[in-house]
Structures are given as C-alpha cells and as structure tokens.
Amino acid sequence: MKKILFGLSEITSSMLFPRAKATGRLGRIALFPMARIIWGLLFIVPVILLHNLLLDHFLLKIKKPLGSWIVHGELGLLVVVFFLCFRFYARLIEQRDAHELSLAKGGSEFGGGIVLALFLVGFMVLLLSASGAYHVERFNPWTILLSSAVIFGTGAFIQELLFRLIVFKLLEEWLGTWAAVTVVAAFFALAHLGNPNATLWTTLALAFSDILLSASFVLTRRIWLLWGIHAGWNFFQAGVFGMANSGIIFKGWIVSKISGPDWLSGGGFGIEASVVSVLLNLVLGIYLLKLAHDRGQFVKPAWKRA
Predict the structure, then answer these.
(1) How many structural domains are present in the chain?
(2) What does the alpha-carbon distance between residue 51 and residue 62 come to, in Å, rounded to a whole number?
(3) Of 115, 120, 159, which is closest to residue 6 (Cα–Cα)?
(4) Which burial class, exposed, middle or buried, applies to 1 when counting CB atoms under 10 A from its CB (0-12, 13-18, 19+)?
C-alpha cells in the first residue's frame, strides 16, 4: 500500500523552481516569489470571474434537466481551462514545464488520494454508527452521486491550484517548507471562518487537518494525490454520507441525522471538526511529511540555500 500511494514521485522540489533569469531590478522584482503569487492569480482569477458570470447570467437560467447537464459539463471544462492556464503561467513567467500537473502516474496518485479519503471518512462513519451518533433516514436518487463528484471534484481542483500550486509553492520557495505549511494551514482555515457553524475550534481543526493536504503535495510535488484526498473527502462526507461539509449542508445520496457529542461528531460543522478526525488527519499528515523529508523533498528558506 505504501508503494502504491506514496512511492510514485520522480518530481523533486528543485524542479519547480523558476528557470527564468532575472535581469535588472525590475526583473528581480517580477520573479520574486510574492510577485509571482500575483502573476499566478492574474492567470486564474479572471477565469473564475468569467465562470461566475456565465453561471449567474446564463447557465443557471436554463431549465432542468438540460440546464443541470450543461452546468456539469461547464464545470468539467473549467478544470481543463485551469489546467491549461497554469501550464501557460509556468511556461511564460517561470520558463519551465509545469511538473505539478505532469500526467505521468497521475491516475495512480489521484486514485490513492480517493482511497485515503474513503478510509478516513469511512472510519468516522463506522465510529459514529457504532456509537449511535449516525443514523440513515432515507436515500436520494443515485444520480446525485454523479452531480456531487463533478461539483466537489471541480471545487477541490480550483482550491488546490490556488492554495498549493500557487500560494504554497511560492511561499515555500521563499520561506521554506515548514513556514509554508504553517502559513497556508492558517490561511486555509481562516478562509472558512465565515462558514455556518464556524468557531475558533473549527478553525483550528481545519488548520491541523490542512497539514495532510500540504504534506501530500510536498511528497509528490504534483496535484493528483492532493486533489484525490480533498475531492474524495468532500465527496464521501457530503455527497455520499450526507454530512455537513465545513458547515455547509449539501444534498447527498444518504439523508442522515447526526447526534452525539460535538467533540466526536463535529456537530453542525461536519466531521472535519471531530477531535478523532483531526487527530487521524494530523497523524497521517505528519507521516507523509516524514516520508517527504526522508526523500529530500523539503525546501530551505531562500537565504539558507546556496
């Protein structure tokens, strides 16, 4: 299992450094990591804005069921567009190949992430069921699973493109791996602070659990394992088992009712706020970080590198 899930990376951290040569003061400023975060966002944010405009003013106004299929098709196309935009950014600004999106063994890593997510969410469902805290009330049509897979898959890809491939990678290049893990975990958690049922504890819980996501990227240096874990977690938690996802209620395949103490179930925020779930994610994240460190995937701060 270790070889299947965690032994696939031939991409090293140095391969993600820019190959562009800075000339003059303006050139050095343009290639500074914080400046390249802005460059990266300029390639991504306009696509998000265009997507939102299409949804609000056109796609969501088309009657169902045709409208639903068109929206799902547009979401799938959106992933392709983001994929191409990031490759274009890497080639134009950093003058390198976008190894983070290398397709070699991407299916195996993505599948490994789905397996990990199923294990983590499935373990929590079994634990809650055994304690009498998870109850199945009824089932919705199975076609909801297809819709959930598209929605959560697209959402996870966009978030990880922004959080990990742009913000994390460039902060890591400047401040080193440990600082990047810490800063992005805090940023990821604070981004969900406005969600329903969010509290100080849920924010801390998301920060601890985010270490697993960063660790999967540090280990493989590609998006696929990371994407599989994130998309799989949301899909199984909300799309399959019908539990709240970061405080937001989605229509899942199973209509469930959650009871029991919040420290175990996560309460209205979802199992992301369960103490047991946080510990599982944190332990696995630390394990992946250790594997990445042993494989030489950690990056020192810029001032400590030759």
Answers:
(1) 1
(2) 15
(3) 115
(4) exposed
Task: Summarize pLDDT for 203-262 with one digit per residue, the tens.
Answer: 999 999 999 999 999 999 999 999 999 999 999 999 999 999 999 999 999 999 999 899
Which residue range is the domain that position 50 belongs to?
A: 2-304
CA distance 146 to 128: 25
- Spacing of C-alpha 130 from chain mean position: 29
Residues 2 and 116: beta-carbon distance below 8 Å: no
What is the Cα–Cα distance from 23 to 48, expressed in whole angstroms?
32
| Prediction pTM value | 0.92
